Structures are given as C-alpha cells and as structure tokens.
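User: Quick sanity check before I run a bigger batch. Here is a single chain. Can you write out its predicted 3D structure?
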Amino acid sequence: MIYSLLRSAAGIAVRWYYSDFTVVGADKVPVDGPMLVAVNHPNALVDVLAAARTVPRRLMFTAKATLFENPLAAALLRAVGVLPLRRASDEAIKGGAVDPARNAQSFDAIAEALRRSAAVLIFPEGKSHDEPAMAPARTGAARMVLHARDSRAVRGIRIVPIGLVFERKERPRSRVVAIVGDPLDVDALAADAKDPVQAITAAIDASLRDLTLNYASTDDAERDARISRALQALLRFDAPSIGEAESFRARAEIARLLPSLRSALLRDDGLDQPRAAAFEAALIDFDQRLGKLRIALDDFSISREGGPGSIFVIRELGILVATGPIALWGWINHVLPFRAALLAGKRVRHTAADPAMRTIIAGAAFVLMMYMLQGAIVTLAFGPWWGLAYVLSLPVAADVNLRMEDRLRRATRRARTYLRFRALPELQDEIMADARALRAEAISLARASGITDVL
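Assistant: Done. Predicted structure follows.
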C-alpha cells in the first residue's frame, strides 16, 4: 500500500518536473519470475523514480547504507522494500578497512526476494555521477544473482537492462526516455563461462552502453546533441504539431546511431573524411544560424500562407478558451509550492543531479502540505466527500496548467516565426534551400555507410 502510494506520488512529481517521460520497449519486461533490473545512474534519486515508473511490477531497491543512519529514514526505506548496501567507497571514507563480507546480509535478503520471484533494482555503476559516459559496471549485480542461484537454488533469473537518457537532467520541463533492452538469462550466461561473475558483468555493461549515450567528453556530448537535433528536423522536414514537441525519443535514437555512422564514414576504406567532417560542420552551422535568428528547428518548415495561419489562430484560441480556466485554477493552487520547490532546487549544488532531486522532493512535500490544508478547509465547510473530490481535482488542474504553459511557449514561438517569414519570405526560402541540401546529403551519407535506421 505504501509503495503504491509513493509510486503514484513519485510518478506525478516526475511528470511535473519533466515535460515528457517516454518508455521504449516496456513489453520486454517479464510479467513474472525472478528479475534484476539494471539501470544506468546519471541522476541520483530521480533514477529510482524513473525506474519505478518504467517497470509496472513492484520493485525492491538497494541503497547505500549511510542513508539508514537516520532512524526515521531507515523506517521509511524499509517500509517500501529498500535494502542497505555498504559500498566500498563509503567504508574508505570512514577510514575503516573494507570488509569483503560487509554485504552478506543484504545479499541474503536479495537472494530470498529473488526466490519469491521479486523484481530488484540495481545500479551497476555503483553510484550516480555527472560524467558524459557510463562508469564501468561493477561486479555487485552479478554476485547478487549468482548468490541467489547458489544459495537458494533460484533458476530462471533474468536481468533487464534499462537505459535512461535525459535531455537536460537539471532543467525543469526537459524530457526523458527510458529504453528497455532485451533481458539477459543468468543461467545461460553462467553455463559455459570460465568466470561467471565477469561474464555477467560484461553482458550488463555492454547492454547498458548500447541503450545509453556515452561520450569521451562533455564537448563531444554537446556536439552530438546539436547534430542529432538538426538531423531529426531535417529528416522529418515537417513541423510537429503545437500540441507536442519534436520527439525526444527519435532524437535519442539518432544520437545512439551517430557513433556507428561516424565510424563507418571515417574508416580508412570508406568515404573521404573531409566530406563527413564538412557535413557535421554544416549541420552545426545550420543549428547555430537558426538559433541566432531565434527560429526553432521545429518551425523552419512551417507554411507562411494565410490559410494555415488563420487555422492556427482559431485553433489555439479555442483550446485556450476551453482549457484556460482549468489551467488558471491549477496555476493558482500550485504557484506557491512550485516556486518554493524551484527555489529549493536552485540552492548551492554539488552535482548536476541536485536541482531535479531537490526540486522534486521539495515539490512533493510542499504540494502535499498545500493539499492537506485545502482539503481540510473544504471538508470542514462542505463535508468529507467534497473535500476528497476537491483534493483529487488539484493534480489534474496542475497537469493541465503545466501542459498549457508548454503549449503557449511553443505557440508564441511559432507565431513569431510565422510573422517573420510573412514579412521576409526570402529568409525562409533561403533556410529551406539549405535544409533540403543538408537533408539530401544526410540521406546520401547514411546510405553510403550502410546505416539506414536514421532514414
């Protein structure tokens, strides 16, 4: 019961902070049987909330033992099925010798949970970080499943890799995609391996790297983000509906393919390197040029004709009239807790994960207090059923408000671009000509490399 309530509350909090959360491959998650869910760890506590939203089954969690030092926190963590793990790095900080048997009790608890066909969440990297690439997977996950197999005779354990890709993890209303990979069969991996721990660890590491974006430096990550954003717009060559932004899922998929595409284009026996390098430079230049003109990649291909413009105005005004009162009600009831949460998230930060984590936690607390206060007032005035109905309506109104704010931003941006293209049609004609040339070159290069998944 506590887990279900917290999972629902966490889902709402994540949806409010991030404008879109997309799950790819949810059907790959086994509906039953012992399962270890292995997730990359770029965003601290948010990764736990994201995993809980991705996996429909109840998850048991592991967390560093230092979180259990507070008695109240320990009671809450155990109530929702969290098991303490004593990390070697934490032991080293305390100055004591690292005991190799420090997690025997936790491993036994995990083995017992797997024997009951539970699903257990683990972060193979060991800890959250801000690096642009995954840290090497540690052996803990492999040792856990092998311990369950050997000590409890658990068979049929599957490891489900999930890659989390954040657009900008620290930025409110950015987007997230969770990609579920093919389950790994522990029995099959361990059957013929000389070193089962290393074999399983290597399989987990390879699966997660295939599902995530990994770069040598932050500059490389930002460069590929620009390239994939421009490529997505050029290959689509059609402005997405105002009701939804361009697909971050599609952009992440393009970014995942870029290393293979680049490797194919730049190999010694492949196409000449100057052509590939010139194309990348042209893509970045195209993106930067539109940025200086304050024209979004979503909007460069919009029609500047009067008919579509009139339809746009009528449709958006109609939507605003229909949903505006609900959005306004949501804004009135949430402006104070939301702003207080954002201020809490902007406090001095040590990692890029701090703003999202602090904002979500503070927001959940502030909103809950506001709901309890308003619900109590309505209950005293009109009765418990009205109080309950009132409180249940508040998160719906908040959701409508946030979505309307996103839509208004996109509509305002598109209207500004439309008016500019109406006044300067030659500007759009020039941009469209450049875009067509870049699109043709992108398709030519992709076909020449043999990688056509981006088409």
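The chain is about 60% helix and 10% strand.

User: Great, the batch can go ahead then.
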